[in-house]
Amino acid sequence: MENERNDGNSDPCAEPLCGFRLVRCLLLETFLVMLAGLLILGFAWEAGFFKLGLVLAVLIWVGISSIVDLATLRHRRH
Questions:
Q1: 57 to each of 5, 8, 54, 77, how far by Cα in Å?
Q2: Angle 73-10-12 from CA coordinates, rounded to 5°
Q3: Contact 23, 3 (CB under 8 A)
Q4: Which of 4, 9, 32, 33 could be 65's S-S partner, Cβ–Cβ 3.0 to 4.6 Å?
């Protein structure tokens, strides 16, 4: 009887690995944002604008990574 009730209310996030999947997703997105920041830094370095590239890389890392993380958490919640 209890299994019948649980089957009707099956929530995919009720699984024990749901938290692990979220952490894995956040780490992957953070890694991809880091690569984008390093790419910008590399282009700026080659062009001779190291400080500007460093500032842009930090802004990408802090700004876009936070936005992606919040969007992922918000998407998972709904």
A1: 51, 48, 5, 29
A2: 30
A3: no
A4: 33
